[in-house]
Amino acid sequence: MAYLILFFKGFIIGIGKIIPGVSGSILAVGLGVYEKALDYLVNWKEKKQESLKFLVPLGLGVALAIVVFSKIILVFLNIYPLLTLSLFWGLLLGTSFKVVKKMQLTFKDYIIIFSLAGLFLFLTKNISLPNFVIKMNIDYLWVIILGVLDAISMIIPGLSGTALYVMLGSYPFVLNLLSNPLENIWASCCFAFGFVLAFFLIAKLLNYLFQNYFKVSWLVIAGFIIYSLGMFWLNIPFEESFSAILLTIGFILLGFLVVLWAPLE
Fold this sequence. Notes:
12 helices
């Protein structure tokens, strides 16, 4: 049963990973697997058996969700954008609630968190990133960089890799690459190389920060969460009809409850 729960949690994280504006690692925080997964990744040599029992079902859930749902999510986003985005905003809201409850924040902490969220929002709105649209002639160096970005966003809670891909104009390319990895083996290998290279380096860095600067690390993560909630909310295509409002509230509540009721251990 424990393996099935881990698989289900990985599945939710994997779906969140391919939604623009949603951070898979933020969902991992809310589902109670983030810190343990980070510890097992960094110290897998010392905890091989425990690491495999924890990471394999979790990773299989993430991988299956990415491969299976990459195209399905695009369909739902195109046909039911309001309901799909409302559901995932509810997931983020539930995650935020769990993180804030876990941290036992003071008034000063709240000021720091919202200040950080405001700073992230300011940087997002005022820093223009170059538009690297990857078409038929693939620049494999940029594919490696996209893999690096994917690893960074997967490890750092609140940072959405898919949102970065949208800003860089490469989201359709990455989504297609993840859903059809055998279509272009060389591009898949380049992406995987960049991902693996950055993944363990960032994991070790964050594990060090958690061990030595635990409170500060979580305050920054909470700032990312509030920032993500705000940015995602601004991108939901709300409708003014009564039925649309009810459905929106219903799907937000559904997403919130999925995270809220998910067992932490």
